[in-house]
Amino acid sequence: MRAEIRWAGLDVESYVPLVAERFMVGRSYLSESSNDPRVVDLAQAMGTSFDDMDFAQMNQIVDVAVQQGRWVIFVGHEIGQRGFQVTDTHALEELCHYLKDPANEIWLGTVEEIGSYVRQHQRLQ
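-> structure tokens emitted (125 positions)
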């Protein structure tokens, strides 16, 4: 009797429906993009790591997202001296000052605040 060959992916089940039932926003990690608020699946929002980055690297991600009208969810592990899975305290402070400066016209909010806004506006489309 030969064993049946199963192709990768055919038996995959997802936790995403459970996230959608239980949470306002679920996010991934190590995504290569920011979120387009017009089409983002809030149960699978993309999260961008900012561990081991300096301010210039963080700022570039923000500036590209702003130019594209997108939403960045930064994800980090520890906060302290820059290193593997550590977000640099000084870089994070610079980023916060940049984001909070009214001249930059950037909405800085929690995932819940922005997720609620996105959900409301997706329903209106």
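The chain has one domain: 16-124.
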